């Protein structure tokens, strides 16, 4: 009749030595290597620390009804300006009486409580002796992130267009994008309001002459901003004495980069460290078995079924 293994367990053989001995020094050295080497290898192989993290969110966008539309003509001294701030433009920008109508609509397409599309329409009266050669449209937006990295700022949507032939209408379609040159700092229970101030209002108060370039130069120096990715644009030609400017800006889900917290870094690094530590533990354990069973260092061998004499 055959025999079957029903139960088994390992017999523990111990090796003991005094505190100040070569065997104790060897064991301490291997223990330190077991703890340190996984960290060194993981760190040198790169990717051990989580330097960056990202999330996706559709921001809350609202138009603040602050805008600046500059239509330049073939005469450098003559420009048509539409704006919402008194005293915003300097002496070289005038003729606001040619801005006949302005319309804006905010659309929540999927009924989730967030604006998905912004529609802007401007109607201009063009003098017969003038031809529009370019337009610059600056729109002020209220931008908010509310999930992982709360952020509240005033941003701009800038549209530029140059015309070769006299235009009678211009239509623009684009997506609003979040642009950053550094990671957002994520602090718990704190809203980042570093750029939550009106850019156009500050220039209206200071009274700059070259207002468009000054606004863009200042906005360019910000660490976080918004810009428009052009999808389609079309202009209708014809000198009809009027011009319609229509811009549709879609607000999609955006990618946001931020600096991870210490807990996120530990959650990322800990599995890498443990996986390497298990390998090094197995290797150094084999070395210990070889050294002590071959008595390369003096240590007392304790076998469970033998009586030990401690004399």
N-to-C terminal Cα separation, in Å? 48 Å
Q: What's the number of extended β-strand segments? A: 14
Number of helices: 4
Helix amount: 10-25%
Envelope shape: rod-shaped
- How big is the Rg? 35 Å
Order of helices and strands: EHEEEEEEEEEHHEEEHE
Question: What do these coordinates show?
Answer:
The protein is of the alpha+beta class and 311 residues long. It folds into two domains: 16-26 and 42-51 and 261-311, no CATH class; 53-259, no CATH class. The protein is 23% helix and 38% strand. It contains four helices and 14 strands. The chain has helices at residues 22-44, 199-206, 211-220, 262-293; strands at 14-16, 53-57, 60-73, 79-83, 99-107, 117-125, 132-145, 151-162, 167-180, 184-185, 224-237, 242-250, 254-259, 300-302. The protein has a five-stranded mixed β-sheet, with no helix packed on it. It has a four-stranded antiparallel β-sheet with strand order 4-3-7-8, covered by helices on one side. A hairpin with a 5-residue loop joins strand 7 (132-145) and strand 8. Helix 1 runs antiparallel to helix 4. It starts with 13 loop residues before the first strand and ends in a 9-residue tail after the last strand. Its main location: membrane. It is a multi-pass membrane protein. The chain crosses the membrane at residues 20-41, 273-293.
């Amino acid at each position: 009749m055959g025999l079957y293994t029903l139960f088994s367990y390992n017999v523990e053989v111990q090796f003991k030595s005094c505190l100040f001995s070569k065997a104790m020094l060897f064991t301490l050295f291997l223990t330190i290597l077991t703890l340190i080497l996984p960290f060194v290898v993981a760190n040198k192989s790169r990717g051990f620390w989580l330097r960056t993290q990202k999330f996706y969110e559709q921001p809350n966008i609202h138009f603040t009804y602050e805008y600046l539309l500059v239509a330049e003509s073939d005469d450098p001294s003559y420009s048509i300006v539409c704006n919402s701030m008194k005293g915003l433009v300097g002496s070289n920008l005038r003729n606001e009486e040619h801005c006949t109508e302005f319309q804006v609509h905010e659309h929540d397409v999927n009924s989730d409580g967030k604006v998905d599309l912004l529609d802007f329409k401007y109607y201009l009266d063009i003098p017969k002796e003038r031809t529009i050669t370019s337009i610059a449209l600056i729109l002020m937006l209220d931008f908010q992130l509310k999930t992982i990295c709360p952020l509240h700022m005033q941003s701009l949507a800038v549209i530029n267009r140059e015309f070769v032939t006299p235009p009678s209408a211009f239509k623009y379609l684009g997506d609003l994008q979040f642009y950053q040159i550094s990671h957002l700092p994520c602090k718990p229970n704190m809203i980042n309001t570093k750029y939550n101030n009106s850019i156009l209002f500050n220039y209206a108060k200071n009274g700059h002459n070259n207002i468009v370039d000054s606004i863009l130069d200042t906005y360019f120096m910000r660490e976080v901003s918004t810009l428009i990715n052009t999808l389609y644009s079309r202009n209708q030609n014809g000198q009809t004495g009027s011009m319609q400017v229509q811009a549709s800006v879609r607000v999609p889900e955006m990618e946001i980069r931020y600096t991870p917290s210490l807990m996120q870094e530990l959650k990322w690094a800990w599995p890498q460290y443990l996986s390497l530590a298990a390998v090094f533990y197995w290797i150094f354990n084999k070395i210990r078995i070889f050294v002590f069973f071959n008595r390369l260092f003096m240590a007392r061998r304790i076998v469970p079924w033998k009586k030990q004499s401690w004399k």
